[in-house]
Amino acid sequence: MLRQIIQIGLPLILPFVIYGIWLKLARAKAIREGHDIVPPWSKGPWLLLFGAGVALTAAILIYTALGTGAPPDSIYHAPSLRDGVVEPGYFEPKK
Hints:
two-stranded antiparallel sheet; alpha+beta; elongated; single chain; two-stranded antiparallel ribbon
């Protein structure tokens, strides 16, 4: 569950968090300098932020699918029960 939150949820909301931080700093600067126009939260680039989040999530999922794991020609050994202890499954490189 934590892996799914990190791989899917975090990249999806990251652009919104960065925009929110930037907006808060921009509003504080505008108020500090005495400007009448303060950047509103409601007029944010929501579609662009959502698209960036989807693209970032897709990039992370593609990297995970293609860049991690055992080599394609390795042999998988399933988990087994030996002397009452479960030995986890593992990949053995092909010789």
